[in-house]
Amino acid sequence: MKAWELEKCIDEFGTEIYRFCMKLCMDKENAEDLYQQTFLKALESDMELDWEQNPKALFFSFAYNLWKSEQRKNARRSTLVPCANFDEANENELRSEENIEENIFRQELIVCVNKIIENLPKKFRVPLILYYLFEQPIGEIAKEIKKPPGTVKSRLFKGRSLIKKRLEELGYGK
Question: Whole-model pTM?
Answer without folding.
Answer: 0.57
